[in-house]
Amino acid sequence: MLPMIARRGVPGHGARVASQLGSSRAVGSIPRLQAQVADVSNGLDQSVLSTSARRDETLTVHPVVNFTPQNCDEFWRKVPLWEKVSAREFISYRWSLYGFLEAVVPEEIPYDEAGTRMQTRSEYIQDVEDGITAATMAIRMTPYILSRINWRDPRHDPILRQFLPLKSVMMPDHPKLTLDSLHEEEDSPVQGLVHRYPDKALFLPTSVCPTYCMFCTRSYAVGANTETVTKASLRPTRRRWEAALAYIESQPGLHDVVVSGGDSYYLNPEHIRDIGERLIGMPNIRRFRFASKGLAVAPGRVLDESDGWVSAVIDVSNKAKRAGKAVAWHTHFNHPNELSWISSAASQKLFEAGVMVRNQTVLLRGVNDDLKTMSALIRGLADNNIFPYYVYQCDMVKSVEHLRTPLQTILDLEAKIRGSIAGFMMPQFVVDLPGGGGKRLACSFESYDRTTGISKYTAPAVTGRNKENRVYEYYDPIDSLPKNAAT
Q1: Coiled-coil ranges per the record (predicted)?
Q2: Does the CA dihedral 309-312-316-318 come out positive or negative?
Q3: Residue 207 contacts by C-beta under 8 Å, 6 or more apart in sequence?
Q4: Looking at the whole model, is its pTM more than 0.90?
Q5: Are 424 and 161 in contact (CB under 8 A)?
Q6: What confidence tens digit (pLDDT) does each residue in 116-143 have?
């Protein structure tokens, strides 16, 4: 099994949490949760897809070989629990910790941004517990991403806002919100494969991620069951994989495949090679990409020479080029604070190795929905040779109304940013249409009524399943409508 830190099963607010490193004991005060501080290492459960023996689950630090820059900013030492952790230990993706919240949250934190009201540590942790109980996604974060958070003011930190739910900031769901807003399950000819566009398919070999986003568009299947959602099973098995790959190979008009999940960071190196070589060998496939948030949430893995995952990606990329085909890594940064010298070094390694890296950002309220932040993110990505590919309007999935913005926000951001950076580094600002219409430029709506918050789109290229001439609707958050914003 993948070694990780799990917080589960200990009922009752206020239970003390162990504050030690390296223990394999499950501890915590969050009831009935899969709230995990994850360590990305062994990939898939060895009992499922490999005949090799299960690895020892004891966490071992594997230092990064020949990489530690001089005078680097050791930002994680600001966290008291990690003040003695070296750069070599921190960069290792196998490193992990326990007792995090009680160790890092101050006795009092600002409740409002002005700091006129305070919240105690106990109240904050209770707020987290209540939020996780109401959330659709299990909670899992890597040590790297935890260390990029401002723990003096966690309620308003733009990184934590993406991954740790607070019940006090949640809003009632819009009546149109669903778990599978993009209707992926309806566009799945075989389990774990979505075929919506004529020439592109989405292959989902796993449903596990190193860090779970609260706003996940695949909340119907990704991660462990929660208090509110029993997940659709996408358990990784050879039989399911073979059925998906056989379908891909059988479609002569299918030329492009996204290997996602979950997250392809959870595939073992041999699985990256197996899938990559299989796709390279298909005459109909001209390009494919591995989708992984790993570069944003666990970039040390790219630098760890003892790990084979990135070597497998580089090997597949080079082999594809020799076959005249294109391979890319599609990653997911949402805020400039997620960038550090570690992610820069990892990006540079990939750039030097010739791996194309593109980024897909989700527009999120209170995270990146202002001009200064979005501009800084796009430029920061470009400076690291990560191509800003998409900025998505947040999907209409349940329990994320507090993170969604009105369509007008994405329209304004695109208008103000376009022309401020080279066109080939300018992302496309898109809406992935509810109901399975696919991605459309946000500005390409047929109509947009700010009073009702309803925008309407058509998708002429997306056909089948009664989609011809269909009109797709996106709904602004209820609290953003003029009649509510004025009150």
Answers
A1: none
A2: positive
A3: 218, 221, 222, 223, 231, 233, 234, 235, 236, 261, 262
A4: no
A5: no
A6: 999 999 999 899 989 999 999 998 899 8
